Amino acid sequence: MVRNGTNCRLRAEAISVDYPGRPVLDSLSLDIPDGKVTAIVGPNACGKSTLLRALARLTPVAGGQVSLDGQPIEKQRSRTVARHLAILPQSPLAPEGLTVLDLVRRGRTPHQSALSQWSRTDAAAVDRALCLTGLKDMSFQLLATLSGGQRQRAWIAMALAQDTDLLLLDEPTTYLDLPHQIELLALIRKLNHDTGCTVAMVLHDINLAARFADHMVALREGRVRHQGTPSEVVTTEMMQDIFSLPCTVISDPVHGHPHVIPA
């Protein structure tokens, strides 16, 4: 794999992950560029979600190493990792009866201890997360009463309250209609722009990934096959190689990003 040449705090070095009966990641190496939005794409079962979980230390690697700030992530304390990196898994679940504020406050857990309970810093971080995601006026609403897009924003607010500058999102647009997908991705783009946080997210929609990401990574069979800017990655050759999909790639007439039209 050719290094992307940028600084990176989060890096995978020749990592392998095996599930019973089959390998999922095969000596995969990847740098997550600092301060950028990275979209990870690829066909079903190619290892996208497993890669994200391995980067967050939720899935152990059988070989290779994930490093955070130059140190092996598996040797770092869980609380230390959680203060630097937040992950939002697919379709997260919350207990019944939880309000938006209850959920977002849970993002402060890595900063709590027996000797350090709720503080002004915690309250400020929660308030900031609610404001950034536009949920301040919904703080006391039950999660169950929110729309799908609002609920996803609440989960992102919880991750933001964790006050990290590395954010991993596994298919954040799942189950959302197109307007809500665009709304959510625009929010992620804005958060990156306003706060400088590094974002890596798994997406299925190539055109939305090309529109909202700075950097794209295309996986197939547990390996990185293509990476670079959307214009470098989203080509007819890549779509054939990764998805076996004949297509035409044009420049989006509105935004200028590459846009895939299936044959």
CATH superfamily of the largest domain: P-loop containing nucleotide triphosphate hydrolases
* Mean pLDDT metric: 91
Q: Give the termini separation.
A: 30 Å
Total number of domains: 2
Helix/strand order: EEEHEEHEHHHEHEHEEHHEE
Please report which band the strand proportion falls in: under 5%, 5-15%, 15-25%, 25-35%, 35-45% or over 45%: 25-35%
**Which structural class do the helices and strands define?**
alpha/beta
Total number of β-strand segments? 12
Q: Give the proportion of residues in helices.
A: 25-40%
Radius of gyration: 19 Å
CATH hierarchy, class of the largest domain: Alpha Beta
Structural features, described:
This protein has 263 residues and is of the alpha/beta class. It folds into 2 domains: 1-84 and 165-263, P-loop containing nucleotide triphosphate hydrolases (Rossmann fold); 93-163, no CATH class. It has 9 helices and 12 strands. The strands form 3 sheets. It has a 6-stranded mixed β-sheet, with helices on both faces. Helix 4 packs antiparallel against helix 5 and helix 5 (148-161) runs parallel beside helix 6. The radius of gyration is 19 Å and the shape is globular. Residues 1-5 have low confidence and may be disordered. Keywords: ATP-binding, Cell membrane, Ion transport, Iron, Iron transport, Membrane, Nucleotide-binding, Transport.
